[in-house]
Each structure stands twice: as structure tokens, then as C-alpha cells.
């Protein structure tokens, strides 16, 4: 580069640095400015020999990230300094110790968190990529500013991705849509979320992006005209009330229009709400709510509201801190239009997220004190992260759901308001109150009525959880729970229970093998794991514990083993296989059986060619006219049309682990009626044998007792033991399986 170019670059650097200080959302003290100046000088020095792919000096990147952090997100001086230094430790000779000495422990800790995220390996493998995201989310626990600066860094990278290779662009854009946009949404950075989504679409589906952008430009004139007509219709009434307000139109993001087109299967022209109208008014804190409803009243005097589309986030703000009143009204020319009513304070919070909360927090002496709702979210996140039992892909998927989820508000019996994700169940509510409440849930009342644990809660429901010391999670709970927290706690509890059963199974197996003159050692375990086509020793012991591997099967194994000549001969031909992870501490979920309907019946089926479901996928059955039941994936391209046009032919279906499946059996008991007989029978079934009863019917006639019971057992052996034990009860003569 020539001297002139370098001078030009330095001038531009100084200009941007001064602009950074000028446009900062917070008021910066002299000490703040000194710290930012020092961080700027260190960044310039550290990156002096580096250039970006586009050819410009590398230091322009941290400066741009600091600008986003300062003005668009509105963070404090510490964050601005950390943003300027975010690549220094990773890319240059400066160490973390140097930064701590120069800027103190907080800046050093934030930069350390950002360096850890950058050092995560870039993997093509989905599960490793998910593991990286999990590690990245763990850094949030150190300081939420780490993730906020990381989002700003990602935004600038997305804005300047043109000079990259196309495959790199697609990878970074997909990652952005997968995790960074949902994170920005959750932290309340709506503007940044929108930009990340649009840029993500620009690189993942460039043709679609160009097409929608072009159409948006073409329709902009009509939109502006519509907003002007709407404003004219209401401004006279608003002015009469002497309100200080402005009316703006906000076009919907390209990404959200694309999502609507896909979801409703409609072309661009049929997407009606391509924009929303915002009425932003000035108000003192005490009259904010009153004025919002006054404006609502004026708008609805002119335009008829859609009663099902009123959203009051002023009385109950979203957990992201968002406050506003949203109404959908029948506007001019018979078109529905969304109107958002916000005070200027609410508007700032919607645009800046948590940064604006600091500004409006009265009397808060501690600069870094986080908003309460953010704290609650971080605590919930920490709990989910600490449970490392979950496989990383499932974890990130679950976590993503909880980022983007729409909210509902439900009440506790005492009248407290709780926020839950849409489609939450009483089980999610129980775990949100306390893990112990969740673990011991026996039932639930919604608005005073008993409901199943799978009942979907609606906003405004009052929920009461009925607990019992003896209640504990079972496999079905995973079908009822939707939140990451509830699911991770249930999975961990089921795993513990399976481990306890496996410990008993090991003792049973040792005893049974001893009677076959075989002692249980690592070699034998290895052989048995392979013989029964399992993955781990724990799987083997668990299946013995629940009786799926019974006496007969163990004897067959012993016989095959004692046939030494055959074994010897086979091993000569090929090497003996080694069981993978024999002592690995896990119980494998083996999705090997497809069941249908509430009763989990086994039916004949074929897998649909259009989506080729595999074991473990979320699926449903569809009864065809001539080909029996076809099984489709829930997200199959044809599922929407099948479920809307032929709902009556849809059968719920799911993949399960056949060894953990429970079966229904009907028993008939006859005998002589004695005092307390029914009590003995039910106690034997539920307390000693730990079997669930679905149906009970007892009659006595002139001293003769007859009972019909439907029980849920895991296998034939389990049922055989139950029948044996029932026969031993005094007074019972016969027990027959119907």
C-alpha cells in the first residue's frame, strides 16, 4: 500500500473511532472514554499487520462490532472495550494476562469467553457442531455480555460476507439462522434478529431473497399510501386528545414473509400483513398504560378490531422484556392490518432489548445489574446446560425451541402469573415451579377440573398441581413435556431408574449364569452383549432386570456357548467381534418398534416413499384406501395437506424401544370372598409388583368372589410372576389371563 493509502486508512479509522463515541447509546464518563481509547489503541497495535479477505485493515472489524454494541445494542463502556479487543487474544501476541493488567478482570473475562467460542472447532459433523453450540452457551454463565458481543460480531461478519467462498457463506448463514438469530430474539434484540434472519436467507436461498426483495420494493409505494390514508383517518381523533405521537409503517422482514408463504403455502401476493402500523406516543411512566388503552379505543372507533387478535403485553410483558399493545383491525379496502401501540420507552426496549432496561431502571446503583427476567432465563438455561446427560443435538434442538417459542401466561392457585412456552402442559408448569414438584406430579387441575398431564394449557388458565410422594416420572412423560427443563429432568430420572433396575439385573444374571456353571466376567458380558445384539453392558443388565431377557434365552446362550467346537471353528474363520463400549455407562434408546394409537398397538404398515421415515423420527400413520397404513414423517412435505384434508384418516404413531414397551393384559380372578380380599389383591398388584391397573371390576355373589382387572406389564415373565403372586393370596382360587 502507498503512503497516501495508509494515511487515508488512518484518517478513516480516527473518524470511525470518534463516531463510535458520539453515537454511543449510554452516556460515557471521562473514565469510560479513557478505557475505550486505550482499548482502541491496543486493538490498532495488535492487528496492525492483519487484513481481511476484502483487503481492508483488520482493525475495522472490531471497530464495527464495537459500533453495533455501542449504538444498536446500547451496551456499556466495558462491553465496548471488550468488543474492540474481542479478537486480540486469539489472533495476536497479546495474552489474557496483558488484558487483565491493562483493563481489569471484567474485560479480560469477557474477552476470554469470546476467545473460547472462537476456538471451538469448525465441524461438518452435526453432533460435534451441536456440542460446540452447547459449549458456547455455557460461556453465557460467565457474563451475558459475552453472548451479546458474539451476536454483534456475527452480525458484522454476515454484513461483510460477500468476498467469501459460496460454501463458507452457506455454512455461516445456516449457523446464524440455527442459533444466533434465535439467541438475539431471546435477549430482546429484535432489530438484530431481523437483520440476521434476512442476511441468513440472502446466502442460503439467494434467488428467493432477491425475488421477495424486488417485490417488496415494488409494493412499497402502495404501502406508504396505505399508511398515509390510515394516519389521516385517526389523526384528527388523536389530536383532539392532545397526544404527542407519531405513526410509522414497519415492513415485515423478508425472512418472516418467506416463512409465512411456506407455512400457509401461498404466493407473495396473498401475504396480507406485509407491514404493521406503529403508533409511538410520549408519556410519563404513570400514564403509559392509560394512554395505550386510550389510543386503542380511538383506533377501534374508526376500524373494527379482530377480537381474537388482541395482545396485551403491557399488563404482562414478554419474558424478553417486550411491552406493547397489538391489535389487528379491519382497515381500509377490507384488509386486516396490525397496529402496534407503544410508548417511546417501550419502543426503545423493543429496539435495544436489555440495554434500554438499564436506562429506565430507577435508582439502580449497580451498572451491571441484569434485568430480573434475563436473570431468570439465565438460571433456567444454566440448569438445562448443567444436565449433560442429553445428547448434544437433542439439547440444541430443545434449546432452540425454548428461544423462539411464543408465550402463554397461566396463573398459580395463589394468583401469581407464570410465563410458559406455547403448547406447554401441566407437567411443564410443575417443573417450572420446582423440580421436586415436577418429579412427584400425580395429576393436575386446570380451572378447577382434573385434566390429563398431556393437556395443552391456554393463556389465562389457573393450574394446580396434585403431588404424591409415591409418584415418579415414567416414559410417557416425555410425550407430555415440551420445555427443555422438564424434559432434561425427566430423562435424567428415567436414566437413574433404569440404572437401579440394571443393578438388580446384574445380580439376577450372576445367579442364573452360576446355575449354568458360568461365572459373570468381562468376557462373558462382552459375548452376551453381542449375542443379544445390544450396545452396552448396562443395556444387558437392564433387559435382564425387566425380564425381556428371560431364563429360556439365558439357557439358549449357555448352550450356544458350551458348543465349544463350533465357536472355536467360527473364530478360526473370522475374528471374534468386540462389543462397542461394554462398560460405557449408558442405556441405549433402541427405536425398533412402531406403535399406533393411544393403546400403542402393533399394526401392519408401510413407510411412505415421499419422506422415508427412519426409526426415532416423529411420525404419524395415514390410512390409505388400497395400501393399508402408510407412515409419514411429521414434517413430510405432504403432511400439511393430509392432516388438513383427511384428518379422520390420521392415526397417531411413534417409534419406541420394544424392550421398554408396556403391554395390556386382562385377568379374571375367582375365589371365596373374605374380608379385605380386594385390598390384598390391589396392594399385591400396585405396591409389591409395581404394576399399573387400568380397569377394576369386582363382584361377590353368595360368598363367591369374581374380579376382572386390566394390568399393564412389560413382558410375559412379568405377567407370569404377577399371576403366581395373586394365586398365593388367601381366598383366591384361580387366576386366568383372558
Automatic annotation (TrEMBL):
Key words of the record: Coiled coil, Kinase, Transferase
GO terms classed as biological process: guanosine tetraphosphate metabolic process
Keyword Kinase listed: yes
GO cellular component: plasma membrane
Pathway this chain belongs to: Purine metabolism
Coiled coil region boundaries: 209-236
InterPro entries (UniProt xref): ACT-like_dom_sf (IPR045865), ACT_dom (IPR002912), Beta-grasp_dom_sf (IPR012675), HD/PDEase_dom (IPR003607), HD_domain (IPR006674), NT_sf (IPR043519), RelA/Spo_fam (IPR004811), RelA_SpoT (IPR007685)
SMART domains hit by this protein: HDc, RelA_SpoT
GO MF, one annotated term: kinase activity
Ranges where the TGS domain occurs: 406-467
Domain HD: 58-158
Domain of life (superkingdom): Bacteria
Cross-referenced Gene3D superfamilies: 3.10.20.30, 3.30.70.260, Beta Polymerase, domain 2, Hypothetical protein af1432
Entry's family note: Belongs to the relA/spoT family.
Record function comment: In eubacteria ppGpp (guanosine 3'-diphosphate 5'-diphosphate) is a mediator of the stringent response that coordinates a variety of cellular activities in response to changes in nutritional abundance.
Protein name: GTP pyrophosphokinase
